Amino acid sequence: MTGTPGLVAVTLLATTALTTMAPAETLRWARAGDSLTLDPHAQNEGPTHTVAHQIYEPLLIRDMTGSFEPALATEWAPSPDDPNVWIFKLREGVTFHDGATFDASDVVFSINRAKTPDSDMKELLTSVVEVRAPDPMTVEIVTDGPNPILPSNLTNLFIMDEDWTVANDAVKVQDYEGNEDTFAARNANGTGPYILSSREPDVRTVLTQFPDYWGKDLFPMDVTEIEYTPIQNAATRVAALLSGEVDLIQDVPVQDLARVAGTDGLEVRTAPQNRVIFLGLNMGADDLDSDNVEGVNPFADARVRQAMNLAINREAIQQVVMRGQSQPAGMIAPPFVNGWSEALDQASTDIPAAKALMEEAGYGDGFTVQLDCPNDRYINDEAICQAAVGMMAQIGIDVALDAKPKAQHFPLISNKTTDFYMLGWGVPTYDSEYIFNFLVHTTDDERGSWNATGYSNADLDAKIESLASETDLSVRNATIAEIWEVIQAETLYLPIHHQVLNWGMSSKVGVLVDPEDQPKIKYITMN
Amino acid sequence: MLAYILRRVFQSAVVLLVVGLVAFSMFRFVGDPVDNMLGQERTQADVERLRETLGLDDPFPVQYWNFLGEAFQGNFGMSYRQGRPVAEILMERAPATLELAAVSGLFAMSLGIGLGVFTAIRRDGFAANAIMTVSLVGVSLPTFLIGILLIYLFSVELGWLPSFGRGDVVRVGGWSTGFLTESGLKALILPSITLGLYQMTLIMRLVRSEMLEVLRTDYIRFARARGLRERTVNFRHALKNTMVPVITVTGLQLGSIIAFAIITETVFQWPGVGLLFINAIQFVDIPVMAAYLMLISVMFVGINLIVDLLYVAIDPRLRGDTARGH
Questions:
Q1: CATH class of segment(s) B92-282
Q2: ipTM exceeding cut-off 0.85 for this assembly
Q3: What would the mean pLDDT of A212-234 be, rounded to a whole number?
Q4: Which of A354, A467, B31, B58 is buried deepest, with most CB atoms within 10 A?
């Protein structure tokens, strides 16, 4: 009997040792921008979705490599009876942070909420006509025709709890005329791996691990607490990493990569981003406003466009402007996207051939034109444009550069009042149709909203429209290939490069760089 | 006296209205908020609907008039960027800026006066000359560079002080303060020095030249001749008489410390109204820009009004001016 107290003490000690085996790990994480709102349907924007992905979950997500992974749905397929219906089987045993059970009514509610006029997610759901729940663990989404890529549009569509949203009077997404924000903009109740613990917009957001998360044993879940702080100034952000005040920063400026990588205990990991940078030419106008050629539009001549494409030295931009941190591009689709091909993504520089084409087109003496460029949107955007100006000068085109903040640059494109412009494009659906709809199709009420080239090809438009409802994937992919051939032959855009993401981190953080620049913390390991 | 005050108050109100009008005429050139507010998938119909809702297509005098009408009822609208009431955001951010301004003002005053007196008394000493030379750095280097240098030295190399943010804050009523925690106090040091360095140099040089002037006057010589202690002469008699212009300048500089905290706040990610304003410009968040500019102009006009009124109280000659009409 005398030995018993000692035994108890030893057992206690052992238990304590066991529990301290998995210590509390806080991930201190910074990037340039903050989430704008916690309401998951109010903003279709990168940093906002990134924070939402820790708290809320969609039916399915893309993993760090860009392929689908089940989240709240375990399987999904088009209905065998009706090609206009997609059937989603939901995950059992999922609870929201407040303890409520997740079921099909929450999915129906959330998709309908995301379709309301105030929602910023509604454009991804235009094909959806009805969402119904035949039983608590099944959801059927009815579209206005067969929609083969519907699941791609749902990867950022977060599911809210119906009862919580209704009880807190947060069904309406956004109200700019009112005087109060919605409850959901500042509070959150998701099914995701982390619970909102505190948040001061633009200052700090703290999330703690959700103990009842369904995937607790399926993912590393090493991080028990997330402290997210936006740091706008690039130099300060890098300094915070160097001084050990943060563990992970997104968007390391290219000029600081060597410094971070050369510091003990820090690492830089890079991966191609889902974003391509290119120049657009207004070929549809009868005459350009900023050129010195009277009465004709030099960009309307395909030979001029080809010459300009040949004049761009992408390797030089990669080496000098981007310090190696880019992938030269020959087409305006990022490499992950369905329809991308290595053969089309090649581009070459050939000044004599370019000059010959200019001569042939009757512009041997060149012309002048203005290039509109953003200076605070893409990595080194203004410097890329400056390099392009020099390259165009080699074939006699005298380019005047006008670089402006993004708030002034993008209206030029959406209002189609620019002759020559820079644009970057990410493809959240990972499918070429998205590129064609916005950048290639003739501008009308539904499509072509970012096509400032003025290009219009009725035959091509019909092919683009057919993609939306073509269920035979091999036919669909063949059409996509045909469309790309026309785009390349017409030199619709001048591709520059695919952007590369650079994340800087403490060596203890184990993470793969996500092509959409959206780290999902549940995958992160900490040693 | 009353007529003078009323006239000054009336002039101040006119200045405020004009500032607002100029601000609203400029907003069109900052860019279009709609592109930032809607995702890249938005249709033309969405754009038009939102422009209509926000009244962005109205001519700017109409927009200004609507803003004034609402502002007089205490409603500054909703932030386009955050979708929250502007008044609430400003209230949330103001403590950070005011605490930073107070600390850097205190730093500039105490060190400025101290060093000013020192360099005046030891005019030919090595230390005084060294201080004067180094102080040139304070006036000639841009604020962001000073901030980055301080971060590099004290955060990255030495690891003593945080490079960004406010540390832990404590909420006292509606006010969030960084004065009550160790990390909050540490976080104040670098931004305060960055923000206050220019003012410190200014005050130091002002005190020094005033002091040199005063030290040459007869009553100081007589005080010395009477055998008063050097300390009494310097601080009781000389310093006191240099303070009048110093206080005037400092009062006006306090306004600019608050208004121009923008750069310091951006470098240190200091969550004050300056950083809010920079974000608002980038996003074309018109309600926030309008409210911020009105707030800053109210502050400047207010400080000027008080300074003007103080002159009347201090200087009898100004009172004589208004009395001349009788």
A1: mainly alpha
A2: no
A3: 93
A4: A354
